[in-house]
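Narrative of accomplishments. A recurring question from our advisory board has been how the design workflow behaves on a single, concrete structure rather than in aggregate. To address it, we present the structure tokens for one chain from the evaluation set, followed by the sequence designed for it. No filtering or post-editing was applied between the two.
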């Protein structure tokens, strides 16, 4: 059981010249409906600004929607930017049309999970809930010790 009132904080971003934002807005709404706080950086955010916002907002996870084909370079740059900010512990999740041949490259860049355009919303929401749990525990928002009330 989580501490009452804890809402995971998820940063969603669209890096580079990618101009399609319908999917990420659907994800944002689904995460909000699941009682998560969503910070959306908007279209055409720079990778350094996404990393900076993630640290400044103390997010529990980062979700990127990438349809431009630049997923490998964006994720590699994000890893470097998070490393500069001592924030490699923030899980990164990517959604988009990602060729299977690139999955290992994204894993090397620190991506924890890849979702395609046909991924069920409930699966995406449950993954975010699951991936933020260790950070919630580390930040004192995990289950209460036995005997500390309801």
């Amino acid at each position: 059981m989580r501490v009452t009132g804890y809402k995971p904080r998820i940063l969603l971003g669209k890096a580079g010249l990618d101009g399609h934002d319908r999917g990420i807005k659907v994800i944002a709404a689904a995460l909000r409906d699941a009682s998560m706080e969503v910070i959306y950086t908007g279209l055409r955010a720079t990778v350094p600004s996404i990393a900076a916002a993630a640290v400044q907002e103390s997010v529990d996870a980062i979700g990127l929607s990438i349809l431009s084909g630049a997923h490998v370079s964006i994720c590699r740059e994000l890893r470097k930017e998070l490393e500069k900010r001592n924030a490699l512990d923030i899980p990164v999740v990517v959604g988009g049309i990602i060729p299977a041949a690139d999955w290992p490259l994204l894993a090397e860049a620190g991506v924890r999970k890849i979702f395609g355009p046909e991924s069920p919303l409930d699966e995406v929401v449950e993954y975010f809930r699951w991936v933020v749990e260790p950070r919630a525990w580390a930040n004192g928002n995990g289950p209460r010790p036995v005997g500390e009330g309801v």
